[in-house]
Specification:
The structure holds 2 protein chains of 2 kinds.
Chain A lengths: L1 H14 L6 H12 L4 H7 L9 H35 L19 H15 L3 E2 L5 E3 H4 L37 E3 L4 H10 L4 E10 L11 E11 L4 H16 L4 E9 L2 E10 L11 E9 L1 H6 L8 E8 H9 L6 H4 L2 H5 L3
Chain B lengths: L1 E3 H4 L12 H10 L3 E8 L7 E11 L7 E6 L6 E6 L9 E5 L4 E2 L3 E2 L3 E3 L2 E3 L2 E2 L27 H4 L4 E7 L10 H12 L24 E4 L7 E8 L8 H9 L7 H13 L3 E5 L7 E6 L5 E3 L5 E3 L5 E4 L4 E4 L3 E2 L12 E7 L2 H11 L4 H6 L8 H16 L2 E10 L7 E4 L1 H8 L5 H10 L4 E5 L5 E6 L10 H12 L20 H15 L3 E2 L5 E2 L1 H15 L12 E2 L4 H13 L6 E12 L2 E13 L15 H15 L9 E2 L6 E10 L1 H4 L1 E8 L1 H8 L5 E8 L22 E10 L4 H15 L4 E11 L8 E11 L7 H18 L3 E3 L1
Parallel strand pairs in B: 13-16, 27-30
Antiparallel strand pairs in B: 1-12, 2-12, 3-4, 3-6, 4-5, 6-11, 7-8, 9-10, 14-22, 14-23, 15-22, 16-19, 17-18, 19-20, 20-21, 24-26, 25-26, 28-29, 30-31, 31-35, 32-33, 33-34, 34-35, 36-38, 36-39, 37-38
Helix pairs in contact in B: 5-6, 6-9, 11-12, 13-16, 19-20
The chains are: A alpha+beta, B alpha+beta.
Chain lengths: ~350, ~800
């Protein structure tokens, strides 16, 4: 019997390393420790072993069993390692081109718009929105733009037919609808809706009836700012706009307020800036926005007392800022959406 | 508005250095008068251009039009052979000669050469060639007394700088040289020298006026009209100073009388009109509304049809002037004129503006009247013109000035508190500083103490400053002249205001970040689209409702109902240019027709080229309907709607979307949002965009109101940590039955069949059609998951529930349980 055990252990030690699959292993294992296996047979024969030989015999069987199990464990370990290796596949080549499309990009105008909104948010402005379809009242009258002002001409603004109703744009009286020519409409809607203090920026799409060329587009984008409270001053306006210019164009940029005229602000200014780091546009005064203190007539139109409140407002073309920042010399590139163009600003 | 520096000097003592044209270029924009362009008039610095004398000339032997001249430039021996094409000189004439080495304007280099075989060492010049005048009809013939050899720049020293100013519409008073002088005087602390008037409104001793009177039947258009008669003028060319001034401001010199009226307009801002008295029929002038259809041929030689809203100045027979806009050819002052009637009047701005606009005719005169000239400036300008006409054209004033109506009143005083100025501007300035600035502008300040101890100023307003009506207008004047450069730099001081960003913006921001992360490039497209496209995709009613009243271009006449067509343009362009980009999105507003009305909606649209357009070493699966549905769901999730609650319905037939391959969920009119996802109509794509690759797209519409919904605060409910039990079931259903409906139905039964525990989910995990199933049927395999809150479920109770679910299915539906 001892020889048998030795032979089984030797057989297992000899055969185990050659086992290649789990099935092979299970089949082989069955011949040893299965119900009809050779080792099992010997263990079954223990009953016939004389009582005095049992301890010695038992010890031998246990030793053989341990040896066989150790061999089997080795096999399992080897097979599992092989299986894992098979699952992993060959080593990767980290330099192969990506088979997936890669991250897209925000449109360059959106990038500039968001940068602008962000810098105003940092100093306490929140974002307001309104519709693009507006009425003459909110686009002109409430902004103190006289009824025969050239901007209101059919030549310059896109109007909607008289008999049309726009379900979600409210009218003041029986005025015409039009596509807003500036984002200043948002000022009016905001001041009608909320009581001061009001501090908003309103980015949005505007429309003018211009023949498209390098600097004109049928639709374009503006960002409007408005701050109304007690004791809002001209000094505050300048501080805010300086913050804007220096954030967008760098600390070396200089600004100036050039007196101008808008019906909805008094005093009114054009803001120019000057930067040494703008390529071809360096060291020239560039006009970037209109601004001023809210005209008392505008306050009256929205029911805010101009004796109690003052405010400032500013508005600028986002494309204009984007073109200066990005060195784009034709506005139409922005609306073609050639991916190679879009990716340049990612 | 062209302002001549030389002309300006008549009204203000400008220092050639301190107030040079270059300084003015810096100062004027900061006073609110931007400079569009700067012109330098007068001769440029020219070397080797000197005075010469034609000693003799002969006809060129080989050229009819040329003469061979001998020209001396002074010193002995300096006789030059010059071939010349001009014929306006005779022997002995003094001329300007450009000698070899000279470079004339336009980089024209003078060299010694031969012209048709004859030597020519120089050129005799016209005034235009030297830029000392406009004459190009022949060479310049100089005064005989001019010394030979004198350089051209010694002879012509009177250069001028013309500043073309952009004047804002509120400042009509600055559309004149005196107006600009006033502004500079305020800034530089100088005085304005107004021209002194010699003429008077009273000349009765000189006889009767040339016309019997003026009838004003339209006083609302013309509240004040004056006419002065001048007899015996000699109409002819203007003297040099007048001609130079007129030409500097970009006008053509016509004759001395007309030039004076234009001069005074550019001097004072008051337009004037001179009639040839002989051409006034019936001996009187009438200011009246035109009759409907009346015609007049204006000075620009265009016959114009008038209507009853337009005022005219007429004689007893016909209209002679469109009031405030332009005169007619019929009453023009010309060389034959000897007697004139000079009109100076105030015309109402709105009337002139409407007339000029309707006629499509803008003149220097209408440009000023429609902005509102000085209502009290009529008499001064008239008399100033009389003085100048007498000076340059002779004649005598006949009779008194005829005056109809009176000067309209203006605001004469505006109150302001100096404290208000300081609180408004936000930095400290003294009362004296404010007062000095206001007074420098000709605004007199009278100081009053109020009962409360504060100080009020009453500021007198000159009639030409109709723009100054309120204290803020005066604050503007102060800051403008005080200098915006003196506003101190400061840090932003902002007290907190707790207003949320509008959700349309924040949602859009997140959507864009999400979609760019999903490899989409953002596109910006036009909101206006083609009318035919609108009709094709959205029908007749949308075509009608989305139309602009006044489109500029016929292919951009309609507001877009969808972002998808524009995105297809982008796909097409990028395909044609082989940029390799396959995913684009846009966020923007779109417009829809609902029950005959327009609705403006917030939209997100995306397109994906669902094809392998580039060869890759490893192919990824292309996008399909479920890709788009997922993206739509994510976008709506960001906007605040649970994607899991969206119920998609298939689209059967649509021109934009491919029937059977696309679906929609929601309804913007009822629920505030709507989305469509799937394959775009392949036939339409081919036909309209010539795109033959399949395009998967998504379009989300949301009403602005949808964004006003408040987000719900999530609440905790205890989650079970007991194990779940799963059961699978296969159902055979009609092919047309929607999986989502089956899921819902089974979930309903499961809810009924479970007591004391839950059926957590019912989810379809396999769809099978084909062999083994009847025609028109499909098999859906569902997995159900059961769980109790407090215990491990026993097989028995799960099996019982499973049994009753199957029983309910059999009883209540047409679904067949697949065994």
């Amino acid at each position: 019997m001892q020889e048998d055990l030795t032979a089984i252990v030797a057989g297992v030690r000899e055969n185990a390393p050659a086992i290649q699959t789990r099935a092979e292993f299970e089949a082989y294992k069955a011949t040893i420790s299965g119900p009809k296996g050779s080792l099992t047979d010997i263990m079954k024969g223990m009953g016939k072993v004389p009582k005095e030989d049992k301890p010695a015999m038992g010890k031998l069987i246990n030793e053989a069993k341990t040896a066989v199990e150790a061999s089997f464990a080795e096999v399992i370990e080897r097979l599992e390692a092989a299986e894992l290796a098979a699952k992993l596949g060959p080593a990767i080549d980290p330099t192969l081109p990506l088979p997936d499309s890669t991250r897209g990009t925000l449109h360059p105008i959106a990038q500039v718009r968001e940068e602008m909104v962000e810098l105003f948010r940092r100093i306490g402005f929140s974002v307001a929105e309104a519709t693009e379809v507006e009425t003459e009242h909110y686009c002109f009258d409430a902004l103190n733009i006289p009824s025969d002002h050239p901007a209101r001409d059919m030549q310059d603004s896109y109007y909607l037919p008289d008999d049309l109703t726009v379900n979600n744009v409210s009218k003041h009286a029986d005025e015409k609808y039009l596509l807003r020519t500036h984002t200043s409409t948002v000022q009016i809607r905001a001041m009608l809706k909320e009581k001061p203090p009001i501090r908003i920026v309103a980015p949005g799409r505007c429309f003018r009836r211009d023949t498209p060329d390098a600097t004109h587009s049928a639709n374009f984008h503006q960002i409007e700012g408005l701050y109304v409270d007690k004791n809002v001053t001209l000094l505050d306006l300048k501080a805010t706009l300086d913050h804007f210019v220096k954030t967008i164009f760098g600390p070396k940029a200089k600004t100036r307020l050039r007196p101008s005229f808008f019906p909805f602000t008094e005093p009114s200014f054009e803001m120019d800036f000057f930067s040494p780091d703008l390529g071809k546009l360096s060291n020239k005064w560039l006009e970037i926005m209109g601004c001023g203190m809210v005209d008392p007539e505008v306050f009256k139109a929205v029911g805010i007392d101009p004796e109690v409140y003052t405010g400032y407002a500013f508005g600028m073309g986002i494309e204009r800022i984007a073109m200066i920042l990005q060195g784009v010399d034709d506005i139409r590139y922005y609306y073609q959406n050639d991916a190679r163009f879009l990716k340049q600003f990612a | 508005m062209k302002i001549s520096y030389n002309w300006l000097k008549n009204y203000i003592d400008l220092d050639p250095v301190e107030h040079s044209p270059e300084v003015l270029q810096e100062v004027l924009p900061l006073l609110g008068f931007d400079i569009e362009e700067i012109e330098k008039l007068g001769p440029p610095q020219l070397n080797n251009v000197v005075v010469g004398q034609v000693l003799e000339f002969v006809q060129h032997p080989d050229a009819d039009r040329l003469r061979c001249c001998k020209v001396s430039t002074g010193n002995e021996g300096e006789v030059h052979d010059i071939v010349c094409g001009a014929k306006n000189f005779v022997q002995g004439d003094k001329v300007m000669v450009a000698l070899p080495g000279a470079v004339l304007p336009g980089d024209f280099k003078i060299k010694a050469s031969k012209l048709r075989g004859q030597p020519s060492a120089g050129m005799m010049c016209s005034s235009k060639e030297l830029q000392v005048g406009q004459d190009h009809d022949g060479i310049m013939i100089l005064d005989q007394g001019t010394a030979l050899g004198t350089p051209v720049n010694d002879l012509y020293t009177d250069g001028d700088t013309v500043l073309n100013l952009e004047i804002t519409p509120n400042r009509v008073d600055v559309l004149s040289h005196i107006g600009v002088a006033r502004e500079l005087a305020a800034k530089f602390g100088l005085d304005v020298k107004y021209p002194e008037i010699k003429a008077s409104t009273e000349n009765a001793s000189n006889g009767d006026a040339l016309i019997s009177g003026v009838d004003v039947s339209a006083p609302e258009v013309c509240p004040h009209y004056t006419a002065v008669s001048i007899k015996g003028v000699k109409v002819g060319p203007s003297p040099k100073w007048l001609k130079d001034a007129i030409e500097a401001t970009g006008q053509r010199s016509i004759n001395n009388v007309v030039d004076v009226t234009n001069y005074v307009l550019h001097e004072t801002c008051q337009p004037l009109h001179a009639f040839d008295a002989a051409k006034i029929k019936g001996g009187k002038l009438v200011v009246r509304m035109a009759s409907e259809g009346e015609t007049i041929t204006t000075l620009d030689d265009v016959e114009r049809k008038l209507n009853a809203d337009m005022a005219v100045i007429a004689d007893t027979e016909r209209a002679l002037v469109v009031a405030g806009v332009m005169g007619s050819v019929d009453a023009e002052v010309d060389e034959t004129t000897t007697d004139i009637v000079l009109e100076a009047a105030y015309f109402a701005p709105t009337s002139v503006r409407a007339t000029a606009r309707k006629l499509g005719l803008s003149s220097d005169s209408s440009y000023r009247f429609e902005r509102g000239v000085d209502p009290q400036g009529v008499t001064y300008a008239s008399l100033r013109a009389v003085d100048l006409i007498l000076e340059v054209a002779g004649g005598t004033v006949d009779g008194n000035m005829i005056e109809e109506g009176s000067e309209p009143a203006t605001i004469t005083e505006v109150a302001i508190r100096p404290d208000r100025v300081r609180t408004f501007i936000g930095f400290d300035v003294s009362d004296e500083e404010i007062q000095t600035v206001l007074e420098s502008l000709g605004l007199a300040v009278s100081i009053h103490s109020e009962a409360d101890g504060s100080v009020r100023w009453d500021v007198s307003i000159p009639s030409y400053r109709g723009d100054l009506q309120r204290d803020v207008d005066l604050i503007e004047e102060f800051i403008r002249v005080y200098g915006t450069d003196k506003i101190p730099e400061s840090e932003v001081v902002a007290r907190g205001i707790s207003t949320d960003d509008h959700r349309i913006y924040t949602v859009n921001e997140s959507v864009a970040n999400y979609l760019t992360g999903q490899n989409f490039n953002e596109a910006f497209l036009y909101s206006l689209r083609d009318p035919e496209e609108t009709k094709f995709f959205f029908g007749e009613e949308s075509h009608k409702v989305l139309a602009l009243d006044n489109p500029l271009q016929s292919d951009q006449s309609h507001l877009r109902p969808s972002l998808i067509p524009g995105l297809l343009d982008v796909i097409k362009l990028n395909g044609a240019r082989a940029t390799g980009a396959t995913r684009f999105f846009e966020r923007g507003h779109v417009y829809r027709e609902v029950k005959g009305q327009m609705v403006e909606l917030v939209s997100v649209g995306f397109v994906i080229v669902a094809d392998q357009i580039s060869r890759e070493w490893r192919q990824r699966e292309v996008a399909d309907f479920y890709t788009a549905r997922n993206l739509c769901g994510e976008v709506l999730e960001i906007a605040g709607t649970a994607a899991s609650k969206l119920t998609f319905r298939p689209i059967a037939d649509c021109k934009l979307w491919q029937g059977g391959q696309s679906a929609y969920a929601g309804d913007f009119a009822k629920m505030g949002f709507e989305c469509t996802a799937g394959l775009l109509n392949i036939a339409t794509l081919k036909e309209r965009w010539d795109i033959s690759t399949p395009i998967i797209a998504g379009s989300i519409l949301m009403t602005p109101k949808f964004f006003e919904r408040k987000a719900k605060q999530g609440r905790h409910s205890v989650i079970s940590n007991q194990p779940a039990s799963a059961k699978d079931l296969a159902l055979i259903v009609d092919q047309s039955v929607l999986a989502g409906d089956v899921e819902k139905e089974v979930a309903k039964f499961a809810k009924k069949a479970t007591q004391g525990f839950d059926c957590e989910s019912v989810r379809i995990f396999d769809v099978y059609e084909g062999t083994g199933l009847p025609e028109g049927k499909k098999s859906l395999a569902l997995s159900m998951s059961f769980r109790a809150a407090d215990r491990t479920l026993k097989d028995k109770e799960v099996n019982a529930a499973f049994e009753s679910i199957q029983k309910l299915i059999t009883e209540k539906t047409d679904y067949q349980i697949r065994k």
